[in-house]
Task: inverse folding
């Protein structure tokens, strides 16, 4: 998606440790008209899929998933990274390691919000090593639901998480794939 690549080059910042900061428009401060274009693009890419739920993980993917869900006319459900008092009933659980936070989370999703008849599109802001995505896929599989694919805004192609998932036959649609990052420069996969 050329619009996204241009925005990353204009407003993104490369930090040590292969961190790409896009917090001025995507995952801290959110440029809603811009994210609306992202939602339209995911709808175009998954137009033939019978999506009934959008699934994401707390927290950065939630806003993007909500915009995408508007184009599919379906609910968003998100996996929580912490147990809270308002969670009740049976839960799907898995462990997910965060690349950015260098932490392992117990990820929780109420069973009442994901059923075997659901056709799920996973949406997230970043894909690096693929740990979060694999955790969400595990929840979809455990629920007996059908995974239609994953829509990723920015994939770090040099970390190979997306490649590993594609090799397993999972449809991964990334709007921008970063091939390399160093100091203050980055290159995109064509």
Result:
């Amino acid at each position: 998606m050329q619009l996204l690549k241009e925005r990353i080059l204009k407003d993104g910042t490369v930090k040590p440790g292969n961190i790409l900061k896009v917090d001025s428009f995507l995952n801290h401060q959110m440029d809603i008209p811009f994210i609306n274009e992202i939602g339209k693009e995911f709808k175009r890419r998954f137009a033939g899929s019978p999506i009934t739920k959008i699934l994401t993980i707390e927290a950065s993917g939630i806003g993007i998933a909500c915009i995408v869900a508007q184009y599919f006319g379906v609910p968003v459900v998100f996996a929580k990274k912490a147990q809270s008092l308002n969670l009740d009933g049976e839960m799907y659980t898995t462990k997910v390691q965060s690349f950015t936070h260098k932490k392992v989370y117990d990820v929780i999703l109420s069973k009442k919000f994901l059923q075997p008849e659901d056709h799920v599109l996973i949406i997230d802001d970043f894909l690096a090593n693929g740990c979060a995505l694999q955790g969400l896929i595990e929840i979809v599989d455990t629920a007996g639901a059908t995974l239609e694919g994953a829509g990723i805004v920015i994939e770090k192609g040099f970390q190979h998480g997306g490649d590993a998932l594609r090799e397993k036959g999972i449809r991964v649609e990334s709007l921008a794939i970063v091939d390399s990052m160093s100091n203050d420069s980055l290159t995109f996969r064509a």
Q: What stands out?
A: The chain has a mean pLDDT of 92. Strands lie at 13-15, 19-21, 53-57, 76-79, 91-98, 103-110, 119-127, 146-156, 172-182, 185-188. The helical segments are 2-11, 32-45, 60-72, 131-143, 161-167.
